[in-house]
Write a structure and sequence with these properties.
This protein has helices at residues 9-21, 24-64, 72-117, 125-175, 208-247, 260-269, 274-285; strands at 185-189, 195-199. The protein is mainly alpha-helical. The chain has one domain (19-285). It has a two-stranded antiparallel ribbon. The chain crosses the membrane at residues 20-44, 77-95, 140-162, 168-186, 211-231.
Length: 286
Amino acid sequence: MKIQENLEFIDVLKRATKLLCGNTNLVLFLFLCTLPLFCFLIFFELSLQTTILVASEYFSREVKFWGYYHTAPQDHAFLKNLISLLFQTFLFYLFPYSLLDLFTTTTIVSASSLVYTREEEPLGFGQLVRRTVEICRNRVGGCLITSLYILLLSTSVFFGFFFAATNYLYIVSLIGLGDYSFYYYYISIEEDGVSYTTPSSFFENLNPSRIFDLVMAMFHGAIFIVLLAKFSKWSAGWNMGLVVSVLEEEEEDGQGIYGTDALALSSYYGRGHEKSGLWVMLVFLW
C-alpha cells in the first residue's frame, strides 16, 4: 500500500463517492455490515447521555442538600443507580462497541480495497462477500491486536470526554443556567394600587462565586472542544492503523503488520495528510 498522492479533503470525498456509485453491490454490502454498529451506537449514545446527566445531577444534589439528613437515603439510592449506569456504559464501550467497530472497519476496508483495485469487471455480491471474508479471516489476529492498542489509547480520551461533560453540566447546574433561578422579581406598588413586576438583570446578581463558576464552565467547555479536535485527529491515525493491519504485509515472510508496527506505519503514512484526515473525521463524527 503506497500513498502516491496528497489528496485534499474534497478529493477524498470525491474518490469515495465515485467508488460507491460505481458498484451497487459494494453499497449493499457496506450497508449490511454497518447496520449492526449503527443500531448499537443509537443505544450506546442514549446510555452515555443518561449516565452523564445522572452524574451531573448527583453532584449537584450533593452540593445543594449538603448536611441535610433527610436526603441521605434518597442520595444513597441515587448513587447506586449512578454506579450501575457507569459500569454498564463502560462495559458497553469495552466489548460490544469495540468488537462491532473492529468488525465493521475490517469488512469496509477489505471490501473497498477489493473493488478499488479490481481492473476487470465488477465483482458480484457473492464473490465480494467470499473474498472479503477470506481477507478478514487471514487478518483477524493482527487486526485484533491493533484494535486492543487503539482501545487502550481511546479509553483515556473517552474518560476525558466524560469528565469534561459531567463537570460542565454540574457547574452549569450550580450557576442556574437552564432555568431562571438567577432572575429575581420585584413588585412595586404605586399610589393607585397597581403593582408592577420587574425582573432584575443577570449582571446585577453576579458575585465572585458565580463569576468563578462561569469561568470554570467555559474552561470545561473549551476542554471538551479541544479533546474533540484531538480525538478526531488521533482517530484518523488509529483507523489508518487498522487499514495497515488489513492491507499491509511484510515483504520477507508475507505476514501482516499489526500492533505498534501498524500504528507507527500509520503515523508515517499520515505525515502531511493530518488536515485532510481531521476534516474527514470531523464530518463523520458530526
